[in-house]
Amino acid sequence: MFIGHYAIVLGAKKVVPDVSLGILFLACQLADLIWPNLVLLGIESFEVEPGNTVMTPLNFINYPYSHSLVGLAVWGALFAGCYAVIRHKQIKHILVITIVVMSHWFLDYVTHRPDMPLSFSASNLFGLGLWNTPAIAIPLELILFGVGLWLYARKTQAKDKIGQYGFWGLAAFMLFVYAGNIFGPPPPSVMAVAWSAQALWLVVIWAFWVDRHRNYVNQFK
User: Fold this and answer.
1) What are phi and psi of 215, to 5 degrees?
2) E strand or H helix that includes residue 125
């Protein structure tokens, strides 16, 4: 799952409206931001294997540190704790950000084949394999993303043209990337995937930028 992860974030904004959308984007995709770096370091691994599932040619062989439920609980607590200390936030913020980080596992569990580890040992793997049923997986993810966009757009107001066009430009860019991942050719190599995955940082930076140019309507009340 890709854009579906961001639906959780756009909904979480209602609970912690004072947290930047960029921080929440970073939280929901923390697993996928850590993962390519661990691949480049040789700590985790995957293969480009067209046909592995209908919707993705990637065979995720070993990624317990970035994608296990236990690993994401640890990463989430560390990330949320550091954010709360630096920004002097409350326990509510720690809980919400940690949950957003951990939500990555549950959404991936729905789409991945059984390759999602529970712990660092990676002895138990889970996944419903919805990527093998694109007629369900694609509409489901688009609906989740659409609902998230609607919630955010309904409860925020653009301060200026950046807030207006930047937001919808970000949504369009994410849909473009999503379509490219589904309908584009298989990547040429593992290293090409690992390096290109760093482009996710662009989405995070874009979210920080857009969020600074939008006001929240009645603090979501």
Assistant:
1) -105, 155
2) strand 125-126
Residue range 65-119, pLDDT digits in tens: 999 999 999 999 999 999 999 998 889 899 999 999 999 999 999 999 999 999 9
Phi, psi of 62 (to 5 degrees): -150, 105
Measured distance CA(137)–CA(130) in Å, rounded: 6
The number of CA neighbours under 13 Å toward the Cβ of 4 is 18
Cβ atoms of 170 and 203 closer than 8 Å: yes
- Model pTM above 0.90: yes
The residues of the chain scoring below 70 in pLDDT are 1, 218-221
Domain count, the chain: 1
Q: CA–CA separation, 221 vs 216, rounded Å?
A: 10
Contact 117, 68 (CB under 8 A): yes
CA distance 146 to 4: 9
Nearest to 108 by CA among 132, 133, 126, 121: 126
> 3-class SS at 124?
coil
Q: Is 144 exposed, middle or buried (0-12, 13-18, 19+ CB in 10 A)?
A: buried
Residue 215 near residue 60, CB atoms below 8 Å = no
Segments forming the whole domain that contains residue 105 = 3-220
